[in-house]
Design goal:
9 helices
């Protein structure tokens, strides 16, 4: 018998909801078949089987919440007939097979053509997903030399990609990295310890997203040396240009928002000041080739940051179309991991709520996040006269390890004229 385990579908996932089964007891599955849907802290994802056999047991019912990663959720009878007796556990026993997430769009290709599961020199099976095996075969990568980072050490796509032929792809150990810091996370005091009596409040349990957001924000604020830079931008011309652009795009059903202008201007400014489009890593400063702009989207229970890839290459109409689609699917929790993981810069806009000014927490490993306030009528001095203008305050929060004050200031100097005179963005 082979246990199917609750997979880790993202680096931050600790537990999830088993939303739906696509198989039932008695069904025969092949490697690559979609067997279930799992709700993570960010999205709903399909899960593939990595082994062949007959489903003999469904161990976790549909709709079950809080299923821990690596918990057995179903059981398969070994391929080829009668159930094989389960051997006694041994220290050197190979890890149990786990369900594998759909790792990338190319996973939708026919898995039947994937190479057979390889075995090591001593005959033990090497545990790897079908997609990882196919990529290894195509690239001539020796799976025996690779350390898997999937459930129970299973080799997955990210372990194989970029690995030299016959060489290992080093796997980062989050647990080891955390252990080397020597800093134990502070536990928040209980309400009883704070003198708040039972029965005087309603307790809403934390779901996966709340836990993930809380953990990432605490890690960021503790580990990243933040500092903010503020600048005021006059956006009267932007509002006028936006009205004209939307009138032209109205027959196509496209409406460009102020945030779409901000994303485009930020992307162009990042190309003008590439030092701001960077991330801190223990190995060095990563200078990103493209401006992949993450936009903060509020959803039920938390926040998610879908990404406009290569925003510097896209027009306002395309950015508007993509941002609307991404925001819609984010609220429906239908984003793929590659659509919200891996941005190089973030934009958070609370202007629609009337917030004048705020500072955001950096979304690691990005080097900056831009916070956009509401445009409002303010008195400004022009040619010695006080006149009204629509002013929007923008805050750039920087990771000082990557973006120092001078670099951040140069970025804002590049951003300000673009947002104040957006005709330059239409050229």
């Amino acid at each position: 018998m082979t246990d199917i385990l609750m997979p880790a579908l993202s680096p931050t996932m600790e537990e999830g909801v088993l939303a739906k089964w696509h198989v039932k007891v008695g069904d025969v599955v092949s490697a690559g078949d979609v067997i279930a849907e799992i709700e993570t802290d960010k999205a709903t994802m399909e899960v593939e089987a990595v082994d062949e056999g007959e489903v003999t047991d469904i161990l976790v019912a549909e709709g079950t919440e809080g299923v821990k990663v690596n918990t057995p959720i179903a059981r398969l009878k070994d391929e080829g007939g009668a159930a094989a007796p389960k051997p006694a556990a041994k220290a050197e026993e190979a890890p149990k097979a786990a369900a594998a997430p759909v790792e990338a769009p190319e996973a939708a290709a026919p898995v039947a053509s994937a190479p057979a599961a390889p075995k090591s020199a001593v005959g033990e099976r090497i545990f790897a997903s079908p997609l990882a095996r196919r990529i290894a075969a195509q690239n001539g990568v020796d799976l025996k030399s690779i350390k898997g980072t999937g459930p129970h050490g299973r080799i997955v796509k990210r372990d194989v990609e970029g690995a030299p032929k016959g060489a290992a792809q080093p796997a980062a150990s989050t647990a080891t990295a955390a252990a080397t810091t020597g800093i134990a996370p502070r536990q928040a005091p209980s309400l009883a310890q704070m003198g708040i009596p039972d029965g005087s409040y309603d307790l809403i349990p934390l779901d996966g997203m709340k836990k993930a957001v809380a953990r990432r924000m605490v890690d960021s604020i503790q580990n990243v040396p933040h500092f903010p830079l503020f600048i005021d931008c006059e956006i009267d011309q932007l509002m006028a240009v936006r009205a004209k652009v939307n009138k032209m795009l109205e027959p196509q059903g496209i409406k460009v928002s102020v945030n779409d202008f901000v994303i485009k201007a930020a992307a162009l400014a990042l190309k003008m000041v590439p030092e701001a489009n960077a991330s801190y890593t223990p190995e060095g400063i990563a200078m990103h080739h493209n401006a992949d702009v993450s936009m903060a989207v509020a959803i039920d229970g938390g926040l998610i940051t879908p990404i406009i890839r290569k925003a510097e290459t896209k027009g306002l109409a395309q950015i508007a179309t993509e941002s609307k689609d991404l925001a819609k699917r984010a609220r429906e929790r239908k984003l793929k991991p590659e659509e919200f993981q891996g941005g190089t810069f973030s934009v958070s806009n609370l202007g629609m709520f009337g917030i004048k000014q705020f500072s955001s927490i950096i979304n690691e490993p990005q080097g900056c996040i831009m916070s956009v306030g509401a445009g409002e009528q303010r008195p400004v001095v022009k040619d010695g006269q006080i006149v009204p203008a629509t002013v929007m305050t923008v805050t750039l929060t920087c990771d000082h390890r990557v973006v120092d004050g001078a670099t951040g200031a140069r970025f804002l100097q590049a951003f300000k004229p673009l947002i104040e005179d957006p005709v330059a963005m239409l050229a």
